[in-house]
Amino acid sequence: MTLNVKVAEPQTIGAVPHGSRRTAPLSGGRFEGPRLRGTVVPGGSADWLLLRADGVLELDLRATLLTHDGALISMRSFGLRHGPPEVMAAIGRGEPVDPATYYFRTTPRFETAHPAYVFLNRLIAVATGDRRADGPVYVIHEVL
Amino acid sequence: MAGTAGIGARPLMVLRLATSPTQEVGSTPHGTLFIFPVTGGSFEGDRLRGRVLAGGGDWVTARPDGTLELDLRVTLETDDHALIHMTFTGLRDDANHYFRTLPRFETAAPKYAFLNRLMAVGIGEIRPDGPVHVIEEIL
Q1: DSSP annotation string for B90-102
Q2: DSSP summary character for residue B53
Q3: Alpha helices for chain B (secondary structure H)
């Protein structure tokens, strides 16, 4: 599926023992794929970001997804984002950047109680990210 | 990698683990917990090779839906004596022949610092002499 999330004003925690920490609450979003589609539920959905000393950004996202037929799905994904300093700076300024010029990959995991979507409980997935000005777009693939 | 059409991957290593007898912790709030202590093993790829040090393990929870959740920690030692901390989480569903992991690496050795910056996927298999994981870097 493709997941578009909308990011609200980030909360900058600042320097912590493992790097520089920022939390980006998700204000909404949507997802669409052949097997599921719906919206991102705001409140509790956020990306906990840690910029490490080696320049790599660790992403730790938790989001609640609501399918079009009313199922709630809890998604968690860990990922990494890094690239040339000028590209990362352009992203920081909110400029459009070709996602092929940097590394942005995540590994979503899903949990649900809804019988129509329990296949999600049993799969491993990987995603490519594209950081756009209003929030990232993830193309998520099941690892077969 | 066959399993992730649309996302490129390239081989990282084949990891073979030797384990000692399973410790069955038993029924816990999340399922049935088994611990597989790692006693050794080897890893080999174009960019790194070496041995698995004793002392790690795989914490495996058998969920009520029949799927095993894996949570592994081991230390790798390369043939040129760098230490690499490796972890993975994963799922194993024998009914559907599905055994996939998400390895992560941490090292202080400059030569292997590329491992700190990559995401990876592993395909696992249980062989008579122990588990084997074919691990690919996600490009």
Answers
A1: EEEEGGGTEEEEE
A2: P
A3: none
Query: pTM of the predicted model, to two decimals?
Result: 0.91
Which of B87, B88, B102 best tests the A interface by mutation, with the highest count of A CBs <10 A? B102
CA quadruple A33, A39, A41, A45: dihedral, nearest 10:
40
To which H or E segment does residue B43 belong?
Answer: strand B31-44
Chain A contact for B23 (CB, 8 A cutoff)? no
Mapped onto helix, strand or coil, the DSSP state of residue A123 is coil
CA A134 to chain centre: 13
User: Distance from B129 to chain A by nearest Cα, in Å?
Assistant: 25
**Tens digits of per-residue pLDDT, A78-109?**
999 999 999 999 998 989 999 999 999 999 99
- The pLDDT tens digits for B93-131 are 999 999 999 999 999 999 999 999 999 999 999 998 889
B98 touches chain A (CB under 8 A): yes
